[in-house]
Amino acid sequence: MLGDEEAAAGGKVNTTNMTLRTFIENDYCKGKRVSCIKFHPKKPFLVAMSMIDNMDFDTRSLIQGKSFESFVLILNFSDNHIITLNYVLETPIEVSCIEFHPENPNMLLGGCLNGQIIVWDLTSMDHRITAGPKQKAQDVGEEEFKVVTEEEDDKSQTIIKMKHMCQSSIIASHKNFVGDLAFIPSTVNVDKRNPGNGKHTHFISVSEDGVVNIWDSRPIEKEALKAAPDFIWKPFMKLDLFKQDGSGELGLSRILLQKDQTSPTFWAVSDEGDLVLIDWSVKPVSTGDDGPKFAEYVRFTYDSEKENRPALALERSPFFPNLLLTVHNFHFAIWKIDLDGYERPIFISAYTYGAHNTCGAFSPTRPGVIFITKTNGIDVWDFLDQSNKPSLTFNFATSPFMYCKF
């Protein structure tokens, strides 16, 4: 498919036949746009999708601070012909990003537009609103929630509806919408007093308010909340980020951690397009005898792609761990992070005309292929073919593509 000379020559016409599988549910999807997509860590045919109201900036600014009924949907793609809706998770605040717990996939966390973190447990019978005939917890299974099979779906057509189990303290949460969530690898010891013993226990949330919160997920597990129902969830650690040039706070939009890493660091992109490396192990240093203590958590800042808008995506190549992809409004950049003394990307794409980018990702199967989603289609870049323009451009969308995930 990629490298087709006729498709590459035109750059606008798709010569490949494609079969699209779409899902629309008027009760939950009408007037919404997708804000985040995440795959189930153990069952990749289950996909969680968060949505927010499809508003322009002016309308959103007028109703800022108001809450709207919103949902997170869990879809089942196991059938090759029909996409079924298994779970509808209610939320009092619109959710901007979501993340499954790596070891307990029954737990789904969401970052809200008001800065709070919200949690659902798919096995919690106490938080189910509608589930057909109510089953006992031991029948459903404590370790893994029950997936609706094809026979059961034909008989009952039951969609399980749930409310959230826990929500973080609004005072201790972010002051702006949560941009991204990511679990810290189990190889990093975050809490030395209460170690995780090789398990994923902490995750990071970032926002454009210049604060990075590190949360402990153990106190908000189902059994722990039953033992302490009045528990107030606050961050385990709070990092205040400032730009290295001293010009103010550093807000983040996307974060990236590496599997099996041992260092307390992570890469991130800022709300102005900068690529930065954060080290949360840095200790605060006093500025004077009685002055406040500040910590230089930002180790490196690559600001060659600075612009007036946040970066849209930050991805690591599945084949070359030292290559990072950052997607911006009208271009994307590839960075080689192990080059000493080189503070620019090794590749900057041509600018997008007639539309703007919305997301992007490396191909999981071909090392030289990158997918960039736009408001009017998808660009496929095959670097074994050419690098001055996309090898293929798909313009089959009736509405803008807002998110891309493999």
- What is the residue-averaged pLDDT? 86
Sheet with the most strands, sense and barrel status: 6 strands, mixed
Distance between the termini: 18 Å
Strand proportion:
25-35%
Can you tell me the residue ranges where pLDDT is under 50 for at least 5 consecutive residues?
1-15, 132-143
Let me know the number of strands: 28
User: Which percent bin holds the helix content?
Assistant: under 10%
Radius of gyration: 22 Å
Question: What do these coordinates show?
Answer:
The chain has 6 helices and 28 strands. The strands form 7 sheets. A 6-stranded mixed beta sheet has the order 1-2-3-4-9-8, with no helix packed on it. A 4-stranded antiparallel beta sheet has the order 5-6-7-10, with no helix packed on it. Strands 11-12-13-14 form a 4-stranded antiparallel beta sheet, with no helix packed on it. The longest helix is centred in the middle third of the chain and has 7 residues. With 406 residues, the protein is mainly beta. The radius of gyration is 22 Å and the shape is globular. The N terminus is likely disordered.
